Amino acid sequence: MEAKVAKLINEQINKELYSAYLYLDFSIFYEAQGLDGFANWYMIQAQEERDHAMLFLKFLQNNGEKVTLGLVEKPDKKLETLMDPLEFGLEHERYVTSLINDIYAAAYDVKDFRTMQFLDWFVKEQLEEEKNADDMIKKMELFGNDSKGLYSLDSEYAARIYTAPSLVL
Ligand code: FEO
Q1: From 67, 110, 140, 141, which residue has the greatest number of CB atoms within 10 Å?
Q2: What's the CA-to-centroid distance between 18 and ligand 1, angstroms?
Q3: CA pair distance 74, 127, nearest whole angstrom
């Protein structure tokens, strides 16, 4: 594998672990507010992000590349309102999309079709991630200002269950 591509994928392991850490922080915030459903949603999201990290890690290993783990940054978002995690979440997923696109572009430049094919799953996944984050903001705007609406949103998010990623390496 081209060194630049391998380096970006190795860095992506760290970014995905940071995402898991960030969403764990969101989960802790909502749990403290008594919103167990929102807390559940982000706890599962954190698990998904860990899965993403493992997929990047396994892909490097399968290609005989060295994996080097670095420090995972502390979640630094200041969470004050019930809307804050949702907005930070969308902003963060857009950033992650840009990172996936950068790896894709690096792979494209060197005709690394294998990595491009691997990344196709993430390109699709990012569409879903951004859509979910955007939907949560819209629903909070529509229903979050009254207690019944908030209760019902919390119940909806309480029903989310973890499913393993459809991509298996
Ligand atoms: Fe790993 Fe939320 O993208």
Answers
A1: 140
A2: 10
A3: 26
Residue 68's pLDDT is: 98
Distance 20 CA to ligand 1 centre (A): 8
Cα atoms in the Cβ-side hemisphere of radius 13 Å centred on 136: 24
Q: How far is CA 17 from CA 1, 69, 77, 96, 105, in A?
A: 23, 10, 16, 12, 22
Residues lining ligand 1, Cβ inside 6 A: 16, 19, 49, 52, 93, 96, 129
Instruction: Report the separation in Å between the CA atom of 149 and the middle of ligand 1, taken as the mean of its atom positions.
Output: 28
Question: What confidence tens digit (pLDDT) does each residue in 85-94 have?
Answer: 999 999 999 9
Helix (H, G, I), strand (E, B) or coil at 108: helix
